[in-house]
Amino acid sequence: MQHCWAEDALERPDFNQIRVQLRKFNRENSTNILDNLLSRMEQYANNLEELVEERTQAYLEEKRKAEALLYQILPHSVAEQLKRGETVQAEAFDSVTIYFSDIVGFTALSAQSTPLQVVTLLNDLYTCFDAIIDNFDVYKESGIRELWNQGNPEIQNHGMPESGNTRNPKSGNHRIRKSQNPRVPVS
């Protein structure tokens, strides 16, 4: 069959050669060539359906991961606009509160602690911050980074209310309440 597709006409078999090959092929399979072609097409269709299902599932999983990441790094309203394919307009706020916190002596403390103790401390701090800021209409961006010039880690949280929202968090006027005290490992 592939010889029939040759670019050069001289390389293609003539009808007599094709007929001989088809008869030879038909004797080997002892079935009608049409039945054979239909059987192959059915196999290809089944394989194609399986492949489409696999690819669809992989696509949906990647889409779910991308959306989860989008919601983690952007405010909910911005993420929704991006998902709908809309242009996100920059917003200006009359006042905002940006909160930075520093774990004083973290480098020394972590040097004296086990990795599990450091993870537990950071988890407790994040849980404490999350419990407090959940009471306000704020956007939290959080990250841990080492300040190389000072050698201290910094945890960032900053609030950004939804535009037009009547509930003003006034986070700057509230002192952080101790909803729970993080456990500080001591060797």
Structure description:
By secondary structure, this protein is mainly alpha-helical. The protein has 2 domains: 2-73; 97-173. 48% of the residues lie in helices and 10% in strands. The chain has helices spanning 15-29, 33-73, 76-83, 106-111, 115-133; strands at 97-102, 144-147, 152-159. The protein has a 3-stranded antiparallel beta sheet with strand order 1-3-2, with no helix packed on it. The radius of gyration is 33 Å and the shape is elongated. The N and C termini lie far apart (78 Å). Mean pLDDT is 75; it is low at 146-162 and 166-180.
Topology:
Blueprint: H1 15-29, H2 33-73, H3 76-83, E1 97-102, H4 106-111, H5 115-133, E2 144-147, E3 152-159
Antiparallel strand pairs: 1-3, 2-3
Membrane topology: Single-pass type I membrane protein
Protein name: guanylate cyclase
Organism: Zosterops lateralis melanops
> What is the spatial order of strands in the main beta sheet?
1-3-2
Tally of individual domains: 2
* Helix-residue proportion: 40-55%
The gross shape turns out to be elongated
Unreliable segments of 5+ consecutive residues: 146-162, 166-180
Please identify the structural class as seen in this structure. mainly alpha
The largest sheet is:
3 strands, antiparallel
Q: Hey, roughly how much beta strand do the residues contain?
A: 5-15%
Task: Tell me the Rg in angstroms.
Answer: 33 Å
Helix tally?
5
Write down how many β-strands occur, each being a DSSP E stretch of 2 or more residues. 3
Query: How is the quaternary structure best described?
Result: single chain
